[in-house]
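Reading a protein record of the kind used here takes only a little practice. The record below shows the convention in full.

——
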Amino acid sequence: MNTIIETPVKKKRAIIKEKTSATERAIMQNEPRRRERANTKENTSKDERAISLKKTITYQRATNVEKTNCKERPTIEDRLTVRMLVRAREDFQDMRKKMDNRIGRKADGTDQELTEARAFNRDDLLMFTTIADNCREQEKEIGKMLKKTLKRFPVYTEYLLHVKGVGEIAAGWIIGEFDIEKATTVSKMWQFAGLNPGSVQGSKAIDKSKYKPSMGEIVKEYTTKKGEEKYLVLTSEMIKADKLTEGFTSPFNKNLRTALVGVLADGFIKQQNYYAMEFYYPYKARLEQEENTVLHVSKDAAWKEVSKGHRDRAAKRYMIKMFIKDLYAAWREIEGLPVREPYQVEYLGHKHG
C-alpha cells in the first residue's frame, strides 16, 4: 500500500486556500452588512443634512423676520445726517464749478474756449487746479458715504432704489428734506416741494422786539446767523403757494424744488422711465392743444400759445407730482403709517391731484 506523504508545500497551499476561502466567505457574508451599514449611514447623513438644512433655513427666516421687526426705524439724526451729506456735497460741487470756471476748465477737466485771456503763472494755475481737483474728490467721497447711509432707510432699499432715474443724490434730497410722519397727506408733500399752485397763509420773520399779537400767530422762534432773535409769524394774508412773495418767507422748500423739478425730472426724461412716458409726454402734448389760459409774461395766454419752455416746466412739475403721489403711498406704507387720498381725489372726486 502506497502511502501518500503530504509535503510541507502542499500543506501550506491547503492552509492558504482554506484561509482564502474562509476570508472570501467572511467578506461575502459581511458585504451585505457593510453595504447595509453604509446605506444606513448615508441615509442617516442625508436625513441629518436635510433636517439640519431645514433647521438652518427656518432659523435664518426666523432671524431675518426678527431682525426686520426689531430693526430700529431711522431716527431724526439719521435724516439730518443724510441732509448734511447732501448739502456738503453740494458745497464742494459749487466750489469746484466756480474754480473750474475761473481757470477756464469744463466739468470733465478739459479746457474751455475762452473769449478773454485768463493768464496765470504756472504755479498759481497748479494751485487753483489742485483746489478744484480736491473738491471733485470730496464730492466722490461724500457720494460713497451717502450711498452707505441711505441703506439705513427702508424707503430707499425697498422703493427708491428701484425707481429708474432716482440716484443717490436725489434720494438724499427726498429723505433728508421730507418728514413722512408729518406728511399726513400727499398735498402736504406737494406744498412743501413748491408744487401746489393754490394759495396759503403767508408767514413773516419779525424781530422779537417789534412783534405784536395783531401781526399773527407765532409759529416758532429762532436766532439768525447774525445773532438776531426773531419770530416766524403766521399771518392772515394769503399768498401764492408756489411763488415767492416780497415781505414773506418762502412757503416751500426752494432747494428741494430745484432738486426735484430742476434735476430729478431731467433724470426721468433721460432714462425714459415710467413717469416720463405716462405723465410728462402726454401732459406736454395736451398743453400744446390747450385753450385754457395761464399767466405768461405778466398776461393771460392760452397754453398752446405760451413758450415751449413754459409748457415743458409745467409738464415736469406734473410728472414730479405724480411721482410724489406714489412715493407718499409707498413710504407711509413702509413706515406703517396710514395713507390718505389727495384732497382733490378724496373730497372733489378728481382723478389726479
